[in-house]
Amino acid sequence: MKNITVLALEKTVASTVTGPMDIFSQAGVMWNQIFGLAPNPYFKVAIATVNGKPVKCLNGVVIKPHFSIQEVKQTDLVIISAEDLQELEKTYRQTRPWLLKLFEAGTTLASVCTGAFLLAETGLLNGKRATTHWGFADLFRLRYPESI
Known about the structure:
By secondary structure, the protein is of the alpha/beta class. It is built from 5 helices and 7 strands, in the order E-H-H-E-E-E-E-E-H-E-H-H. It is globular.
């Protein structure tokens, strides 16, 4: 079973946390239930926040994490939620060492929506193809011309 950590950032879009969590949590579960088979989950999914405290999403929903990023020593995949770009510099300072350490240990890093900005800040997208929310694509290209 693979471990997936969804990084829920302050002022995120709730679906960029709950969507990936739902999809990965149901792999090997829902299909089996439909056909009367025992669940066989492929992934263990958990939510982390920078400090282990709940985050408030843009829509007012509060997401309670399983743990802080400091408690995540190993995971197979980190999915970075949408980022409030006004918080980017602060979030980057708080998460960069953690993201780079996990990446160097073999963790795959991914992002949803504007979470690509945080990922690009690490330099790991240099020379790589990246996507973000279409409304922020021009700003992304301007800020990170070394990403394709």
